[in-house]
Specification:
Chain A: This is Heme exporter protein B. Chain A: GO terms for molecular function: heme transmembrane transporter activity. The complex is a heterotrimer of chains A (222), B (67) and C (244). Chain A has one domain (2-219). The two termini of chain A are 27 Å apart. Chain A has helices at 2-17, 19-39, 44-66, 72-77, 79-85, 91-119, 127-151, 158-185, 191-219. In chain A, helix 2 (19-39) packs antiparallel against helix 3 and helix 6 runs antiparallel to helix 7. With 222 residues, chain A is mainly alpha-helical. Chain B is rod-shaped, with a radius of gyration of 26 Å. With 67 residues, chain B is mainly α. Chain C has one domain (16-180, 190-237): Four Helix Bundle (Hemerythrin (Met), subunit A) (Up-down Bundle), CATH 1.20.120. Chain C is built from 7 helices and no strands. Chain C has helices spanning 5-37, 51-78, 81-113, 121-142, 146-178, 193-225, 230-237. In chain C, helix 3 (81-113) packs antiparallel against helix 6. The longest helix of chain C has 33 residues, at 5-37. Chain C starts with a helix and ends in a 7-residue tail after the last helix. The chains are: A mainly alpha (222), B mainly alpha (67), C mainly alpha (244).
Chain lengths: 222, 67, 244
């Protein structure tokens, strides 16, 4: 585990030194959400209906856009080649990188989500479910998106292509993530749906890093 | 035959528009894909033939200049 | 044996001349039977005749993506050249079939549901399948090196196959949450044999045509990849018999 710990520390340090990459997704999340009351209707009863979907679509886009440059700096500086040829399996540093990235970009979204959910007129009893759904869902989004980022790392125009590749893969997480909030708002049972989200996270967390390192190997041409 | 006349067949009950546009669009897409596949093959063949002819000409020119 | 590009080329040269007419005749026979001779449905009248292209296209699109996933696995893990070629050859016709499935489904939906589009489980899954075909094709078109492009698309297709399965269940789950009015187009497999046989025949015909399309595209790709080899050079200057 020490290799993992060292890699995690390094990644956290690197990200910490460029705070814009951390803060921008958070601002994006808040801004996109504040567009909806202005564009659709500020009426509380309308907002409460669209809130689960709005929160989740905004979180999904924020995570996806934050991933565009995930491996680019490493590739430009040559760290990526080193990482793929290192004696440790590529999966270990890749997992560390994904965890660090989620801690500094995904977790902040989870932490501000109750405030935004309240602004979107969701009842207070649901705020816990909002946080839990994002807590289980955003890491899955980070991992799935990283597969797309790994496959497009060497290409100049990553942005839109990344969206085309990754958005279809996000749909199950989106459905269950927004679905659990809706179920909670309607007073239904949430544990089963949260378990499904947990299962999706377990699936992506176990297979995702393998796919990401395979993708990086393909992109770097070996 | 499930229809009494050809006009009946074209009318498809009241649903001629839906049935025939479904088949028309399908036919268009299938034929387009087949044609594109066929054209791609022809284009690759032509490109390769052209490259080869040019390579042979280059070789001849080189031979002549050497003698 | 089929792993060798040259063997594949000669093999497909001998298969295509008879597979193509068989595919076309089978498809046309199934469609003519279905459109003109099968009895009309007692509930839907004649609009149900869209089934003879809708169901074959849907199943073909789904099978095509599964095949992409298998080819992806072989290309990424064993780096087999022919699997890479197949990744490029399978995708376009599959995407066309997914589009056909959506359009015919919408045109069937209007007289049946009263609307062209409904977010029911099958239509939604097919839409997402089309998006995933688009992703695979887009990724292949952007990466220069053909081998790298194929393997990248292969990895994406592998992930996509897992996604297809999860999407199907999650979309069905959303349906139960909404309890929308989903009118089943057909009851539980109680389809009249007089409708079933033309359906099976046109399905077989379209699948065979898919195979023809894949072989044609794969031959093009093989020829391009092997353009520096002697056998391709010979082929280009002296076309084989029965080909122009």
């Amino acid at each position: 585990m020490s290799a993992f710990g060292a890699a995690l520390k390094r990644e956290l340090l690197v990200l910490w030194r460029s705070p814009a990459e951390m803060i921008n997704p958070l601002f994006f999340f808040v801004m996109v959400i504040s567009l909806f009351p202005l564009a659709i209707s500020p009426k509380p009863e309308v907002l409460a209906v669209i809130a689960p979907g709005v929160l989740w679509v905004a979180a999904l886009l924020a995570v996806m856009l934050s991933l565009d440059g995930l491996f680019r700096r490493d590739q430009e500086s040559g760290v990526l080649e080193l990482l793929l040829t290192a004696p440790v399996m590529a999966v270990v540093p890749v997992t560390a990188k994904l965890l660090a990235h989620w801690l500094l970009t995904g977790l902040p979204l989870v932490l501000v989500s109750p405030v935004l959910a309240h602004m979107l007129q969701l009842p207070n009893a649901v705020l816990g479910t909002v946080m839990l759904s994002l807590l289980l869902g955003t890491p899955a989004l980070t991992i799935i998106g990283a597969i797309g980022a790994a496959l497009t790392v060497g290409l100049n125009r990553g942005g839109i292509l990344l969206a085309v590749l990754v958005l279809p893969l996000y749909i199950p997480v989106l459905i269950f993530g927004a679905g659990v909030i809706r179920a909670a708002a309607e007073g239904g049972a949430v544990n089963g749906i949260l378990a499904i989200l947990g299962a999706l996270l377990a699936l992506t967390a176990s297979l995702g890093p393998l796919a990401v390192s395979a993708g990086l190997k393909i992109s770097s041409g070996n | 035959m499930a229809f009494e006349s050809f006009a009946d067949f074209l009318a498809m009950g009241k649903h001629g528009f839906y049935v025939w546009s479904a088949y028309g669009i399908s036919a268009f897409l299938i034929i387009a894909s087949m044609v594109l596949a066929l054209r791609g093959q022809g284009q690759v063949r032509q490109t390769l033939a052209r490259q080869q002819r040019r390579a042979e000409l280059d070789a001849e020119v080189n031979d002549e200049s050497r003698t | 044996m089929l792993g060798s590009p040259r063997y594949f080329y000669t093999f497909s040269s001998s298969v295509l001349p008879w597979l193509t007419p068989i595919a076309l005749v089978t498809l046309l026979a199934g469609l003519v039977w279905g459109l003109g001779f099968a009895p009309s449905d007692y509930q839907q009248g004649n609009s149900y005749r869209i089934i003879f292209i809708h169901v074959p296209a849907s199943s073909g699109a789904l099978m095509g993506y599964m095949a992409l996933g298998v080819a992806g696995l072989v290309a990424v893990v064993w780096r087999m050249k022919m699997a890479e070629v197949m990744l490029k050859a399978i995708a376009p016709f599959g995407a066309a079939l997914a589009a056909i499935s959506l359009v015919t489904g919408a045109l069937w939906g209007k007289p049946t549901w009263g609307t062209y589009w409904q977010w029911d489980a099958r239509m939604t899954s097919m839409l997402i399948l089309l998006f995933m075909y688009v992703g695979v094709i887009a990724l292949q078109n952007v990466i220069r090196d053909p081998r790298q492009a194929a393997r990248a698309a292969g990895l994406l297709a592998m992930v996509g196959v897992i996604n297809v399965i999860i999407v199907k269940y999650s979309v069905e789950w959303v349906q139960t949450l909404h309890q929308g009015s989903t009118l089943k187009l057909f009851g539980e497999s109680t389809i009249n044999p007089a409708m079933k046989y033309p359906l099976l025949i046109s399905m077989l015909g379209l699948w065979l045509l898919y195979a023809v399309n894949v072989l044609m595209r794969a031959r093009t790709e093989v020829m391009w990849r092997e353009r520096r080899s002697k056998w391709v050079a010979k082929l280009v200057t002296r076309p084989e018999k029965g080909e122009q």
